[in-house]
Automatic annotation (TrEMBL):
Identification of the protein by name: Phosphoribosylformylglycinamidine cyclo-ligase
Organism: Streptomyces prasinosporus
Organism lineage: Bacteria, Bacillati, Actinomycetota, Actinomycetes, Kitasatosporales
Primary localisation category: cytoplasm
Pfam families: AIRS (PF00586), AIRS_C (PF02769)
The EC number(s) this enzyme carries: 6.3.3.1
Positions in coiled-coil regions: none
Residue ranges annotated for the PurM-like N-terminal domain, each copy included: 58-166
Subcellular location: Cytoplasm
Length: 355
């Protein structure tokens, strides 16, 4: 009897059994993110969230966001470290949602791989689940897609979408900001998840630095520095809204501090941030110095040491700083909101960084 040599999904490079194994491995991590409003378990066609929990709101507004982590995934791939990139994903999604004052509720993920390695996929989901716990949201589902021929066997990418809720009369944003408000900066944990195309081009491609090489000024290897997880500010921001008056937040991501801050500053006002109020971490100088990158280019690409901004009334400054300090967040008054004056954009950095 001749052997069947017909085409099959497995022969095309898709391993359904490996996918099933990955789902089994990730279940324990997803379970750790469960909120009381979540119905059912992992494996359904859709994640379920009991919206009756929102009946206590007078006028609930749902906030949603979607994002990825860019080319930082290539650093994870090269280092064979997969359980931190999920923190980055949650931060990129949920810290966008909290900017309007919304409480993160739930998140879904999408993991695309060239070949399913169950333990590797489970490690990615582990990181996402840990990030969801830090953000206070549930991971209600996701998708792992195997794309042989499109991606190499070790290549992968991640994306996610999230939903939060805020009471309509507590919505934060530009319409609350007033002249004289204080601009409070919250320290980043490092590069976070933006600008990695520039960072990789400068440090790896042009300078030829090895990820495993120890960099004295960083106090660790280059790879360890580049994989430092993005700080998740969601619960810190929500704590601020409970303990003091907050007018707006700005999540500092692609485009840098000034451009992201300008997104929440209303017409007629201007936010001025004084560089002398902080010293960027050594990794920012390393990128700038190694690649001869001009400061303006660095500032519109990287966060330069500030991951989140809170704009509060001057009289709320002390309370805000106390709350953040109690939560272990390094924060400081970095500037203020002024009249437009001579400025033509919504936000600007002035002065020189502290040494």
């Amino acid at each position: 009897m001749s052997q069947n040599t017909g085409a099959s999904y497995a022969a095309a490079g898709v391993d359904i059994e490996a996918g099933d194994r990955a789902v089994e491995l990730m279940k324990e991590w997803v379970k750790k993110t469960r909120r009381p409003e979540v119905l059912g378990g992992l494996g359904g066609f859709a994640g379920l969230f009991d919206a009756s929990a929102l009946k206590n709101y007078e006028r609930p507004l749902l906030a949603s966001a979607t994002d990825g982590v860019g080319t930082k995934v290539d650093i994870a791939r090269q280092m064979g470290v997969y359980d931190t990139i999920g923190h980055d994903l949650v931060a990129m999604v949920m810290d966008d949602i909290v900017v309007c004052g919304a409480e993160p509720l739930f998140m879904t993920d999408y993991i695309c791989v060239g070949k399913v390695h169950p333990e590797r996929v489970a490690a990615i989901v582990k990181g996402i689940a840990e990030g969801c716990v830090l953000a206070g949201c549930a991971l209600v589902g996701g998708e792992t897609a195997e794309h042989p021929g499109l991606l190499g066997p070790d290549d992968f990418d991640v994306a996610g979408a999230g939903t939060g809720v805020v009471e309509a009369d507590r919505l934060l944003g530009a319409d609350r900001i007033r002249e004289g408000d204080a601009v409070i900066a919250m320290a980043s944990s490092g590069l976070h998840s933006n600008g990695y195309s520039l960072v990789r081009h400068v440090l790896l491609d042009r300078a030829g630095l090895a990820l495993e090489s120890r960099i004295d000024e960083l106090g660790r290897t280059l790879g360890e520095e580049l994989l430092e997880p993005t700080r998740i500010y969601s619960l810190d921001c929500l704590a601020l809204t409970r303990t003091t008056e907050v007018h707006a937040f700005s999540h500092v991501t692609g485009g840098g501090l000034a451009a992201n801050l300008a997104r929440v500053v209303p017409d007629g006002l201007h936010a001025v941030v004084d560089r002398s109020t902080w010293t960027p971490a050594p990794v920012f100088d390393l990128v700038g110095r190694t690649g001869s990158v001009e400061r303006l280019e660095l500032e519109k690409t990287l966060n330069m040491g500030v991951g989140m901004i809170a704009i509060v009334p001057q009289e709320s400054t002390d309370a805000a700083l106390t709350t953040l300090a109690d939560r272990g967040v390094d924060a400081w008054v970095a500037g203020e909101v002024t009249g437009r004056g001579e400025h033509t954009t919504g936000a600007a950095l002035v002065g020189d960084y502290a040494n």
